[in-house]
Design goal:
- The chain is mostly helical.
- The protein is 60% helix and 0% strand.
- It contains four helices and no strands.
- It is elongated and about 130 Å long.
Length: 147
């Protein structure tokens, strides 16, 4: 067995092969490495930052698209409300209920509170005087501290 290993030990290099010395790499290779590594790191960080910015912008764009859809549907509903409010029936309803107007020939009916109910001062006897107005806050504090 020793003869098998002896042949491998006896050869120092293959014919035609150049043996390189073991040691630090040459100066130009070190300079390239020193310049390339920070440049590579910067490129990776900048690309990552751009990807994050792109993601955030896409999220904002999606939110704005959803808001546009909501506002368009609200706009359509408001336009339908405008069309409905311009009809004769809607105008008459607003005039009767909110403005208290009556058609010619109609008789207006005004409901008055009953004589015995609170707030009926039209002929139900002497009513209680209205309560005195509350004094201003500065007066309340003055009365609280100095009696």
């Amino acid at each position: 067995m020793s003869s098998l290993f002896a042949g491998a030990r006896g050869r120092r290099s293959e014919p035609g092969g150049v043996r390189r010395p073991v040691g630090p790499p040459p100066l130009p290779l070190r300079l390239v490495a020193v310049l390339a590594v920070p440049l590579l790191l910067y490129t990776l960080v900048a690309t990552g930052q751009k990807a994050i910015d792109n993601y955030r912008l896409n999220q904002q764009a999606e939110a704005l698209r959803a808001e546009v859809v909501r506002l368009r549907s609200e706009n359509i509903q408001l336009q339908q409300d405008i069309v409905a409010a311009r009809t004769d029936a809607a105008i008459e309803t607003i005039a009767r209920e909110e403005l208290g107007l009556v058609k010619p020939g109609d008789k207006a009916v005004v409901l008055l509170p009953a004589a015995g109910s609170p707030g009926a001062g039209a002929g139900g006897g002497p009513s209680a005087p209205p309560p005195a107005p509350e004094p201003p806050p500065w007066r309340q504090w003055l009365d609280l501290f100095f009696g």
